[in-house]
Amino acid sequence: MRADGEPLRRWLSNLLRHRHRFGITRVGSLTRLDRVGVPVVQVVRPLALSNAVSQGKGVDMVSAAVSGIMETIETWAAERIPEAASHVSKHSALSADWMKLFSPWADSVVHSGWEALDLPMIDGWDLVSNQRVPVPLALVDTIYTYPSPHPSVFPRVTTGLGAGASLVGAIVQGALEVLERHALTRAYRTPYFYERFQIDLSTIKDGPVAALLQSLTQSGLLAAAWLANAPDTPPVYRCHVMEAEWPLELAPMPAEGSACRFTSDEALLAALLEACQARSAVIAGAREDMTRRIYPSVYERERLAEWRDQIRLPGSLPYEAERQTPPSPSTMLKAVVEAAVRAGARAVIVVPLYADDELGIYVVRVLAPPLHLWPSSRHG
């Protein structure tokens, strides 16, 4: 994203003037639905082929609005891949290396014999080998209508979508999300993760994170954070925000957020903001992917009380604000590629989806096989 201040305001103004180009009919604030005061913006795109409602969050309303609009443009761009950009690759034309690269993501149980299918492909560029690589279109587009335009071979998730004011910025954002989802999948498979990797937030005394934690406490909410990343990779935090007491509740269940950034302060702040955004989204109840199970008629009060006690624990890990030195803007791209390789990626493939120099919008999809795509996916 662009720098804070007037450039960001000008960019937002430009995005709002051209919002109808992307099918956006409403950009509205959800902030006052909750008592926390974290700026949360809802963006509506009624003719979407994926989620029609997106959210954005930030430390101020301008950054929250930009965040929401750009998230909406990500899926808009991935829904509109030109037919000329895709092609069908015959099985016989795919090398053994290609099969080895993407087979960990394929669901051979659901679709046995997928290796013999002629799958729609789109070309991407591997930043590791500096070579063109065909990518299954199902891993790139966001046409989530039913019936699906793709056979049930590869997972249909948004992991790796990135948008920014520059091509490099979009790639970096998408790659950081890839690293985040991979780290979360590994963390959830770690025995006693929530007991072993909880951070002691009481040691954070100043800065934006401390200010947000204080606001949450004053609003009668609890917050907890867990460190999820592997050593030598950018920090990844998982956060929960939850009501401190019952029955004075707007949203009884803990709201979840996670983020990967180059520094601990940035990652933790982004994860906490996302948890607050998730809480506002539940309160608003406008997202079509929030089904009845999000709003049970009866809550398991005993389990909620147990988790509230867990969140209140100080945590066994000290918070290390300077655990990772942030790279310079000119080396961020190299840094995320190297981090993905350290995490186990055999390729870091970029598929450009949209570019508008006038508006300063660039959208890409980043894939790093065989890193895990989504914590709840069988393919992960």
From TrEMBL:
Domain of life the protein comes from: Bacteria
YcaO domain span: 56-380
InterPro entries: YcaO-like_dom
Coiled-coil annotated spans: none
Listed name of the protein: YcaO-like family protein
Organism expressing this protein natively: Microvirga puerhi
